[in-house]
Amino acid sequence: MEDQQPGAGDLTADADKAPSEATAETEKSKTEDLAEGDESTPAATQATTESADAADAAAQAEGEAPEAPEAAAAAEAAETAEAGAADTKDRRLRRKLLAGKRLAIAIAVAALLFVGSAAFAGATIQPYLADRAAAATKMKVARTAANAITTLWTYTPENMDGLADRAAAYLSGDFEAQYRKFVDAIVAPNKQAKVTNNTEVTGAAVESLEDPNAVVIVYTNTTSTSPLTKNIPSLKYLSYRLFMKRTNGRWLVTRMTTITSLDLTPHV
Length: 268
Prior knowledge:
By secondary structure, this protein is of the alpha+beta class. It has helices at residues 8-64, 67-152, 163-167, 173-193, and strands spanning 196-210, 213-225, 234-247, 250-263.
């Protein structure tokens, strides 16, 4: 059996064919690579875009990251300021309320003190006023009694006739009538003897005062002179008890008695 060697033409053809096929395969491979490259381009672009967006977001986050604490601090400061303002307002309100309460308490205390002091003053001044009124009344009674005694026992020969009328301003009732009768009896002899009688009140005191009645003691020194005794004065110390009554706002003597009568006339 003989070996069959291929012909030169066959080898050439095969050789020619091989390069062409290799070239075709290469072209095909390139075409496929290009196709794959075209298909991978949008993905790569998308990936690039996403990377850029991520970078921008990261950059923005990095740019905004410092602002977040500042905003929080500002918000906290605002809250603190608001809380402080509210606390200040509350304190002011409490101060006002406390001041109002203190003022109300002070006014109430002042009112109580005023009422208490007024009541105390009223309770104190009432007896004081009563005592002053009583003292004033006693003074008036004593002065009236002193004037009455002075008028009753002071006269001269010239005014002896009007003595009863002058004394009537201080006398009342039966005692006025008795005194007038006594004066009528002594007018003539005293005028004839030219008797001058002068009575000086040395003291007067209210013994009792029960409105409208009073009892007064009056102390006097009485001096009498007459030409018949060579004008040598007759000195007497007399004290009287006067019973008086208030009539129509005036104190009048209703009765009189002699307590003491001492003759102090010197004898020669």
